[in-house]
């Protein structure tokens, strides 16, 4: 649509190499890609000491700057997490190849055979912060979908990301695939990111994952298409007809099992009819786990020691052991609260009433709606996509967890026998 | 993501009304939507005298400004075309409702039932030029997909668009659906368009259709997600193994049946082995229909009266009776030419060799690839989508002709029985 920047900065040169590599990746068949991804997983495990050492340097630097606990948790690797990263890559390797799949076929009345066939997007730019696992997850998913990937991680994880990307590129080299197919950018200045975001001839999609500041910056400067991975303000609504023991399980799991991630719960909404029965149990279980509650007047009438919630606590992504609580009159009030304060990420209803569940699902336009299941399952791996490249809160192309298939696009392949649209074109010669 | 403009300009007020109407449209079931669309088609036909009169005023104003023949063809309505517009709306009414459809269902090992269910996008802004049929097509498709629509047409078609939108809104009113669900903007200043394009809290998707200037303007100013409908530089490659009579049919149909539209052919590529046999027949058939050829040296060696092609003729969207011609050494050279000069819209191969067809399809990343069929079939109606809202050349969300389904998005609905991610969350109370 517009010419790429001329003059060939280092970034543009890197992107051109990535674009050239993309054609090679697009041509790999399913077996070659599987072998490649297995080799990448092996390379990560083989490089575990280097990666953990690099991560220790990142953590030391972060600690020296006084990093918060949620961010530290996102940054930190350990042998288990590293094994999980490699296992995630193997999980992607085992998935069916999305490329070349014919998703629909129709014969038109005039005999044209119209197929929809999945092809790769091309070059995907991943822009992220803190979590070094994204380096491997994004590379695996992009390659599985036949794309090349440009990785622009955060400065706080630069050593970890470099070590992981180095392992991945060794695997590419070993499999005879151009290393430029996985390109970790090391110029982390904002100007370089702006230059990246304007290369709409060389980059097909940018996926920002991170804090509000990053997402806004990308949205402001992008000329390339963007799928936002915005904040997760996940709600649990405990319905009048809820199984309260089940609801308590979902609450504790959603809030405490990993508070620093986007599918953690941030707000609890409780139907007034069960507030007396549920709130004291919830408060006891959560305070035993160090969670601070912030409640409305109706909550504080039942739990007098709870701190009052400010208006901005509803809609806040705490990413920490803090929970906003509100008592609502009915399901419609819960829906209205979520519509007003939610982020379209993931909402949960606990109820034994199928009609209430259906109304909750239909009334909300969030990417993921759960009935009697923890918000923490809002994750590509848990929902069957293999690893995920993120959770889209953009209502376009992909909405919710994005796996390899979301990194492809359907195009039309039409086969005919000389059909023309205008009969007078026949016998032209 | 960001707050809508405060203060409530007339545009923002209109968009808020549209957003409110969107919730009502999203809740309509398939039968209500079918009735509504039938009523819209009836209303267009009932208003035919008014619409044609309004169109005559637009044409008179355009003629006074000295409009070109291709643009005039896009702007012009006649009883047949108006009947076609109403028939297109009825075609959409007859399509299966894309909303609420469960496209996939999987039970995970832990018992979670994961479904993908289509929901509307919300509010779609259609930004277009010249062709007044877009007013009806876009409204029908957006409503069929459960969306509200904001229509921002070109000033040259303002009377036609106002007459058509008036008919559509009468139908909405008659069916008890808020009129704000179809909103024709009449402030056509560029500043108003910029304001529209920045309302990412109120508009879910912008679809620009028109000339390069419009598309660039939208891309430059949009904060809302955009699917571009960029130019169609469609190629016909006549392979060595082509049936030359069939190829000639595709050529004449592609170039002359409606040269002012984006799926018309702009460039002919001929394999050197059949150039002697094909080019004289092509030149005779095309010049009989008033087509000017612009050729490379190898073409002019066979057709000495043909004017030399300038480099910029390859990649030009003439939208007129002009055709660029090049002789290529083989299929790979044809692919390389299209990759360099194409617009990713629609490409055609004429060949009887299945291997050549497969290689052509696989090597190109265009939205539509045709084998032995006219490029003029690259159209939502012809490819089975009912009417189309446009032909996307953005490799995201939808690629190629976009119908009602492309105006929805899949989200996740997950049903469980109290599953938690972290076992220690169990028995929390």
From TrEMBL, chains A, B:
What this protein is called in its record is: Gamma-glutamyl phosphate reductase
UniProt feature coiled coil, ranges = none
Catalytic reaction annotation: L-glutamate 5-semialdehyde + phosphate + NADP(+) = L-glutamyl 5-phosphate + NADPH + H(+)
Organism (species): Coralloluteibacterium thermophilum
Q: What protein family does this chain belong to?
A: Belongs to the gamma-glutamyl phosphate reductase family.
Q: What EC class is this?
A: oxidoreductase
User: Which residues are in the Aldehyde dehydrogenase domain?
Assistant: 12-289
Is the Cell membrane keyword given for this protein? Answer: no
Q: Name one Pfam family in it.
A: Aldedh
Q: Which PROSITE patterns would you find in this protein's record?
A: PROA (PS01223)
Q: Which UniProt keywords apply?
A: Amino-acid biosynthesis, Cytoplasm, NADP, Oxidoreductase, Proline biosynthesis
Pathway annotation: Amino-acid biosynthesis; L-proline biosynthesis; L-glutamate 5-semialdehyde from L-glutamate: step 2/2
The record's GO molecular-function terms, alphabetically, read:
glutamate-5-semialdehyde dehydrogenase activity
- Classify the source by domain of life: Bacteria
Protein localization: Cytoplasm
InterPro entries according to UniProt: Ald_DH/histidinol_DH (IPR016161), Ald_DH_C (IPR016163), Ald_DH_N (IPR016162), Aldehyde_DH_dom (IPR015590), G-glutamylP_reductase_CS (IPR020593), Glu-5-SA_DH (IPR012134), GPR_dom (IPR000965)
The protein's matches in HAMAP family, at most eight in alphabetical order, are given as:
ProA
EC number(s) in its UniProt entry? 1.2.1.41
User: What functional role does this protein have?
Assistant: Catalyzes the NADPH-dependent reduction of L-glutamate 5-phosphate into L-glutamate 5-semialdehyde and phosphate. The product spontaneously undergoes cyclization to form 1-pyrroline-5-carboxylate.
Entry's Gene3D superfamilies?
Aldehyde Dehydrogenase, Chain A, domain 1, Aldehyde Dehydrogenase, Chain A, domain 2
């Amino acid at each position: 649509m517009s010419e790429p920047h001329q003059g060939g900065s280092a970034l543009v040169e890197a992107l051109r190499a990535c674009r050239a590599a993309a054609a090679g990746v697009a041509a790999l068949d399913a077996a070659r890609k599987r072998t490649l991804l297995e080799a990448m997983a092996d390379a990560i495990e083989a490089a575990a000491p280097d990666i953990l050492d690099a991560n220790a340097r990142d953590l030391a630097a972060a600690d020296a700057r006084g990093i918060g606990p949620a961010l530290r948790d996102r940054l930190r690797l350990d042998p288990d997490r590293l094994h999980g990263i490699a296992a995630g890559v193997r999980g992607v390797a085992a998935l069916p190849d999305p490329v070349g799949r014919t998703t629909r076929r129709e014969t038109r009345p005039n005999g044209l055979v119209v197929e929809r066939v999945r092809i790769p997007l091309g070059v995907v730019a991943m822009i992220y912060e803190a979590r070094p696992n994204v380096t491997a997850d994004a590379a695996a998913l992009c390659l599985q979908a036949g794309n090349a990937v440009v990785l622009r991680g955060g400065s706080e994880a630069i050593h970890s990301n470099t070590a992981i990307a180095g392992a991945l590129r060794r695997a590419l080299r070993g499999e005879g695939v151009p290393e430029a197919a996985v390109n970790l950018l090391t110029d982390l200045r904002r100007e370089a990111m702006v230059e990246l975001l304007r290369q709409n001839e060389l980059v097909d999609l940018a996926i920002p994952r991170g804090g509000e500041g990053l997402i806004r910056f990308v949205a402001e400067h992008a000329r390339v298409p963007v799928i936002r991975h915005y904040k997760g303000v996940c709600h649990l609504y405990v319905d009048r007809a809820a199984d309260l023991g089940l609801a308590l399980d979902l609450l504790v799991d959603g809030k405490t099992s990993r508070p620093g991630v986007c599918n953690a719960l941030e707000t609890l909404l409780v139907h007034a009819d069960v507030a007396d029965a549920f709130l004291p149990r919830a408060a006891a279980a959560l305070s035993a786990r160090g969670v601070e509650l912030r409640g409305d007047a109706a909550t504080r009438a039942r739990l007098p020691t709870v701190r009052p919630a400010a208006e901005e606590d509803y809609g806040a992504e705490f990413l920490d052991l803090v929970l906003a609580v509100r008592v609502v009159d009915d399901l419609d009030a819960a829906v209205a609260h979520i519509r007003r304060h939610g982020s379209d990420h993931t909402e949960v209803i606990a109820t034994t009433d199928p009609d209430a569940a259906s109304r909750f699902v239909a009334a909300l336009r969030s990417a993921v709606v759960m009935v009697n299941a923890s918000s923490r399952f809002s994750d590509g791996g848990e929902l069957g996509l293999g690893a995920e490249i993120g959770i889209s809160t953009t209502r376009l192309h992909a909405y919710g967890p994005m796996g390899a298939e979301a990194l492809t696009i359907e195009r039309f392949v039409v086969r005919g026998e000389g059909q023309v649209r205008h009969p007078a074109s026949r016998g032209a010669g």
